[in-house]
Amino acid sequence: MSQESRVHLSRSAPATYQALGAFSKTVGELSDAAGVDDRLKELVQIHTSQLNGCAYCVRVHVERAVKAGITADTIAQLPVWRESGVFSDRERAGLELAESFAFISEEGVSDEVYDRVGGVLTEQEYVALSWILVAINAFNRVAIAGRYSVPPGADLVGENRDAAAGRAW
Predict the structure, then answer these.
(1) CB within 8 A of 9, min separation 6: which ones?
(2) What's the CA gap between 103 and 163, in Å, rounded?
(3) Which pLDDT tens digit goes with each residue over 18-75?
(4) How far is CA 20 from each of CA 17, 59, 144, 155, 163, rounded to the nearest angstrom?
(5) Is the distance from CB of 11 to CB of 169 less than 8 angstroms?
(6) Crossing angle of helices 156-164/55-67, nearest 10°?
(7) What predicted TM-score, i.e. pTM, was given to this entire model?
(8) Are 13 and 169 in contact (CB under 8 A)?
């Protein structure tokens, strides 16, 4: 089946996609209230999207990461974050939690991960990051299932505008 003949979830059910967008906005408000900074938000969303194989969401969140001041070197270190020295303890905790959410069927969030992450993040940060990860995993699944294409970088502004209106991809 070609990409063109696939059902386009966001276009076929725009109200549902808009609800996912509203959910994501609520998650953003929760994370802001918990003090989760843009750098950490974008790092965990890029890494989750990489793990899930969602090229579209990687593109979107790399663009947002750059706007938040994250360098190309830092972004390039995400796949090897355990071996890299460029991430803070909070970021490392977030990245470990991101892996647990991306591979949730393997063992959920194990007690070991929960304890390590909980030793670094506050309860409010843990809750907020968990909801961020629920949201990005949902968006990854919509984009991956629909085989949404990755437009040239110059086209991304229009894609972001369309996504906000529930007309994405």
Answers:
(1) 16, 17, 142, 145, 146
(2) 26
(3) 999 999 999 999 999 999 999 999 999 999 999 999 998 999 899 999 999 999 999 9
(4) 5, 19, 16, 22, 10
(5) yes
(6) 100
(7) 0.87
(8) no
How far is residue 103's CA from residue 51's CA, in Å, rounded to a whole number? 9
116 CB burial (10 A radius; 0-12, 13-18, 19+): middle
In the structure encoding, which two tokens stand for residue 111, read together?
């007690």
Q: Amino acid letter at 161? A: R
Residue 107 has which token pair? 């063992």
Tokens of 139: 């968006």
Could you tell me if 94 and 120 are in contact, meaning their C-beta atoms sit under 8 angstroms apart?
A: no
Write the CB contacts of 167 (distance below 8 Å, at least 6 apart in sequence).
10, 11, 14
- CA distance from start to end of the chain: 18
Q: Which two tokens stand for residue 82?
A: 């355990």
Q: Report the pLDDT averaged over residues 85-96.
A: 97
Residue 98 has pLDDT above 90, yes or no: yes
Place of tokens 């393997």: 106
**How many residues can be counted in the chain?**
169
Kindly state the tokens that stand for 6. 């696939």
Residue 118: CB atoms within 10 Å: 15
